[in-house]
């Protein structure tokens, strides 16, 4: 029996994939696995039994990754599963940043009950004029699942698209329209583009990337979109630039107290991934990842441990999470040889300071001796 704790509302399409080997709920204790969306886990107590956390979504800045790695807890996310939903909202954001639709709608509401509403609308609409996006330059920072979707859609809408991503994956590059221009540095995005949209994760490198200095490089009347994370933008610097007219519009999915209800700022309630399609996709993928790991020891789409995805061919699989240091495999093999246990299959992979080894065997094995080895963090045997 495995216990799975839900820290957010997770789509029943995903949760329904758990069979009767699983106890699933919000109040479950001694959890083997956690399913989470945006709830912060930085203060969450990681119990000794916890083996895996699956983030039904992309960003993992709400999870204490280093602490999890240290304790041998595998953290998954669901790459690409909500990218289309975010792309669609970014396109909506692009239009809202250009045409004064939100302001116009708010104004029309003030005419409620006014007999002359139709006339007044025709007279007053000129205050809501805004430019078309066709032919304008869009700069994208971060060309992953979402950035590439946005780039391709913007090309189809007739925009001139510049992309910047120093770590772009081969897969993302394959999926991107050949018309997207490769910006060699982020300054090109800042200085060339009429619209700038952020699609990089929150990291030491990206936090505060939009600040007084970068804004100073931008065109007058630039429009900035942030559907990545609130802390990529220095809010005070953007507000100052909005007030001076340097930035025409700031559209964001992240509500911080200082930016709410400020002229020319549109704040959405973190709606990027909130579509039934995306919620189902993310939940389905997250549940599959956690089940595969708990039941077979396979790791796919982890952000802190390497991928190992091997078919089961033996009765037992020893799953060893350990530090990425020399001599671990020799110690494992010796330990098994001393017990006259035959290894049918053994795979080891490392990711940064941590490594994962699976050993398939048909003989009964205990975990104690492995646990006593230095640099071994977590040991499990799955049957
Ligand atoms: N508003 C919302 O509801 C949602 C927001 N997000 C946010 O969007 C981010 C991106 O999501 P995905 O595209 O799915 O992730 P992804 O991992 O597919 O793409 C992120 C890209 O950013 C790039 N990157 C990293 N550091 C960079 C830097 N310093 N400069 C430029 N590019 C850099 C990476 O190389 C990668 O290609 C997530 O980390 C999350 O914070 C994601 C989903 C929903
Ligand atoms: O996937 C992400 O990174 C998101 O920001 C989506 O968050 P959510 O699952 O809608 O709380």
Automatic annotation (TrEMBL):
One of its GO terms (molecular function) is NAD binding. Residues 317-383 form the ACT domain. It comes from the Bacteria. Keywords: NAD, Oxidoreductase. The keyword Acetylation does not apply. InterPro entries: ACT-like_dom_sf, ACT_dom, D-isomer_2_OHA_DH_cat_dom, D-isomer_DH_CS, D-isomer_DH_CS1, D-isomer_DH_NAD-bd, NAD(P)-bd_dom_sf. Pathway: Amino-acid biosynthesis; L-serine biosynthesis; L-serine from 3-phospho-D-glycerate: step 1/3. It catalyses: (R)-2-hydroxyglutarate + NAD(+) = 2-oxoglutarate + NADH + H(+); (2R)-3-phosphoglycerate + NAD(+) = 3-phosphooxypyruvate + NADH + H(+). Its EC number is 1.1.1.399, 1.1.1.95. It is an enzyme of class 1 (oxidoreductase). It holds the Pfam family 2-Hacid_dh. Catalyzes the reversible oxidation of 3-phospho-D-glycerate to 3-phosphonooxypyruvate, the first step of the phosphorylated L-serine biosynthesis pathway. Also catalyzes the reversible oxidation of 2-hydroxyglutarate to 2-oxoglutarate. Belongs to the D-isomer specific 2-hydroxyacid dehydrogenase family. This is D-3-phosphoglycerate dehydrogenase. It comes from Coprobacillus cateniformis.
């Amino acid at each position: 029996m495995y216990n799975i704790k839900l820290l957010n509302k997770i789509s029943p399409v995903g949760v329904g994939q758990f069979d009767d080997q699983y106890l699933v709920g919000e109040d479950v204790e001694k959890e083997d696995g956690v399913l989470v969306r945006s709830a912060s886990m930085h203060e969450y107590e990681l119990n000794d039994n916890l083996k895996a956390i699956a983030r039904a979504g992309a960003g993992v800045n709400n999870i204490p990754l280093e602490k999890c790695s240290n304790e041998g807890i595998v953290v998954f996310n669901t790459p690409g599963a909500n990218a289309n939903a975010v792309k669609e909202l970014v396109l909506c954001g692009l239009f809202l940043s250009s045409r004064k639709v939100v302001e116009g709608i708010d104004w029309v509401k003030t005419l409620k009950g006014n007999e002359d509403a139709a006339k007044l609308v025709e007279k007053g609409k000129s205050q809501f004029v805004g430019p078309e996006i066709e032919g304008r330059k869009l700069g994208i920072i971060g060309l992953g699942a979402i950035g590439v979707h946005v780039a391709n859609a913007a090309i189809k809408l007739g925009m001139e698209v510049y992309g910047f991503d120093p770590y772009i994956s081969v897969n993302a590059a394959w999926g991107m329209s050949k018309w997207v221009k490769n910006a060699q540095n982020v300054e090109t995005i800042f200085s060339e583009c009429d619209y700038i949209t952020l699609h990089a994760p929150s990291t030491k490198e990206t936090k505060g990337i939009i600040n007084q200095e970068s804004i100073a490089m931008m065109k007058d009347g630039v429009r900035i979109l942030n559907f990545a994370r609130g802390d990529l933008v220095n809010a005070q610097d953007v507000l100052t630039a909005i007030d001076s007219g340097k930035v025409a519009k700031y559209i964001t999915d992240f509500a911080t107290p200082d930016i709410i209800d400020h002229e020319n700022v549109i704040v959405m309630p973190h709606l990027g991934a909130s579509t039934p399609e995306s919620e189902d996709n993310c939940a389905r993928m997250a549940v599959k990842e956690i089940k595969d790991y708990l039941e077979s020891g396979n790791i796919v789409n982890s952000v802190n441990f390497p991928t190992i995805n091997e078919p089961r061919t033996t009765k037992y699989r020893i799953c060893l999470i350990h530090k990425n240091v020399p001599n671990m495999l020799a110690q494992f093999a010796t330990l098994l040889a001393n017990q006259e246990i035959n290894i049918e299959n053994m795979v080891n992979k490392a990711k940064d300071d941590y490594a994962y080894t699976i050993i398939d065997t048909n003989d009964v094995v205990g975990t104690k001796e492995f646990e006593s080895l230095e640099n071994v963090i977590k040991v499990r045997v799955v049957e």
